Amino acid sequence: MEHINLKHANISVSDPEKTAAWMQAVFGWRIRWQGPALESGFTRHIGTEAQYLALYCPADLQKTPSDPHGFLGGLNHIGVCMRNLVVCEARAKKGGVHTP
């Protein structure tokens, strides 16, 4: 069977800049691209050369869940594999994430 990798995921967030800055601090990712997006929104791509997250912010944050491009929080989670979970967890806690 062919090996298939995830290229990217697109999620709607309220603040692409702040979200990307947090991901840079925790995961060490870099900004790949940023600019105007669908329906006068804004997108920032963050990740590695091979994979990234597209952090999309619609111009109108009041859209309903029936419009997946304008609904914040429609994605439950994204799995990220890393070599050193202890280091990543320390970065996340430093960035304000509280673990149980």
Q: What structural category characterises the helix and strand content?
A: alpha+beta
SSE series: EHEEEH
Give the overall shape, derived from the CA principal axes.
globular
Give the fraction of residues assigned to helices: 10-25%
Largest sheet, spatial ordering of strands = 1-4-3-2
Q: What is the top-level CATH class?
A: Alpha Beta
Task: Tally the beta strands.
Answer: 4
What is the CATH topology classification name?
2,3-Dihydroxybiphenyl 1,2-Dioxygenase, domain 1
CATH architecture: Roll
Distance between the termini: 39 Å
Largest beta-sheet details:
4 strands, mixed
Number of domains: 1
**What is the radius of gyration computed over CA atoms, rounded to a whole number of angstroms?**
15 Å
* Number of discrete helical segments: 2
Our estimate of the beta-strand percent is: 25-35%
Overall average pLDDT: 80
Low-confidence stretches: none
Annotated CATH homologous superfamily: 2,3-Dihydroxybiphenyl 1,2-Dioxygenase, domain 1
Keywords summarizing the entry:
alpha+beta, four-stranded mixed β-sheet, 2,3-Dihydroxybiphenyl 1,2-Dioxygenase, domain 1, 100 residues, globular
Explain how this protein is built.
The protein has 100 residues and is α+β, with helices and mostly antiparallel strands. It has helices at residues 16-27, 85-94; strands at residues 8-12, 30-37, 41-47, 52-57. It has a single domain (8-94), classed as 2,3-Dihydroxybiphenyl 1,2-Dioxygenase, domain 1 (Roll). It has 2 helices and 4 strands; from the N terminus they run βαβββα. The protein has a 4-stranded mixed beta sheet with strand order 1-4-3-2, covered by helices on one side. α1 (16-27) crosses α2 (85-94). The chain is globular.
